[in-house]
Amino acid sequence: xxxxxxLAVCLLLGAAPLGAANADREGAMLGLNTLRxxxxxxxxxxxxxxxxxxxxHAKDMERNGFFSxxxxxxxxxxxxxxxxxxxxxxxxxxxxxxxxxQPMVMASWRQSRGHRKNMLSSSVSEFALVREAxxxxxMVLARPGC
Length: 146
Fold this sequence. Notes:
The protein is of the alpha+beta class.
């Protein structure tokens, strides 16, 4: 029954099939879209391009031992999105370090004014969340096109 409920939530929110690799993704979609619904906002869908940009930044921070919105090459969120072929009219990025689980990082961001503002932006329609070694988290939220 629990598996069927999770599958129904995944299908409703547009998540990928169940599996260990998708646990953070499923939880983030549920948590973020629940938060947005509580504020009368439309749900966000998952973007593979945003995931790719977020993963590159998380790997860069892990590999080069830093924690910043600026990449080791001086890149910013706009540069990273362009590098994966994502044209956008709105974009935001949340980063975190040290939280051992997806629910904990989401709770931290909900308690932070700036991070919460990004998650509740009516200007975005897609997102991705990744975790790298050392519990480096990157969430990218954006709206394509415009």
